[in-house]
Amino acid sequence: MELRELSAFVAVVEEGGMSAAARRLHVSQSAISQTVSALEREIGVRLLERVSTGVRPTDAGAALLDEARAVLARYRQAVRTMAGYRGESGGVIRLGIPLELAPHVLPGALAKFAAESPEIQVVPRHLSTAAQFEALRSDELDVGLVRERPAGSEFDALLVARESLGVLLDSSIAAGRVGPDGVTLHDLSDLRWTGFPRSSSPGWYDELTGALRSHGIEIGPPAPDGHVLIADVKFAAVSGGHAFALAPEDQPRPLPDNVTWAALIGRPLVRRTWVVWPADSRRRDLGRLIASFGVPDDA
């Protein structure tokens, strides 16, 4: 059995299907299917069975799942241990970043790090918070910028941004509701919140929706998995006056003429960003990058 076969099998079981596992591993669905079939032929037992919601492990598959996770964990630990002796990454740091990252967070940190370590290349990659934690565990990322602080001792974290969120509204709606100081969430209770999939950042989603509910906002079903809440999606959703979206004041691009940003009175919603990394990492280059990030003044 090869590590890539075990990784594919674990992904299929954890995701509950071939297509979701393929997205997680960034390969084609046919490649995942062929890899798992080859593994079944190699060991001579059936590992998966189809169910109405996708696939689930057989008894043999459940036994292999525990073993495969243990093997992959030991492999990742071995890689990290050797990196500790080496002290450097070999020239590359893989960095996860979320959508709508506060504009001051990354440029300053990368400029400072480049001046101190010009031989190290930082390779950024857009991923949700949940996907970044998974990629850190599977040694596909070295460090991440995430929306929720990790629990437990697996990762270390440093707060690097705190943003008060406002709202995006159709300009015709904003004209009748937004005052000189902004608008309250209670004034938006008849509008639909344009949200993101809970699976992308469960902790942040629960914190955010809890605050919205406390201000009279009804929360509908979460957006489907794979839904990406980019700026254009927000602009389209609020156009027409039936919905609102959340966004910081410092927009990465100009607003359309029919969309208005407004502050929320009392600043009830704060979005935080942490830089996170494996707690057992001993890489000096990674330490220098982490030290390059600024800390909010009120942290």
Automatic annotation (TrEMBL):
Keywords: Activator, DNA-binding, Transcription, Transcription regulation. Residues 1-58 form the HTH lysR-type domain. The keyword Ubl conjugation does not apply. It holds the Pfam family HTH_1. SUPFAM superfamilies: Periplasmic binding protein-like II, Winged helix' DNA-binding domain. Transmembrane segments: none annotated. It comes from the Bacteria. Belongs to the LysR transcriptional regulatory family. This is LysR family transcriptional regulator. It comes from Mycobacterium paraense.
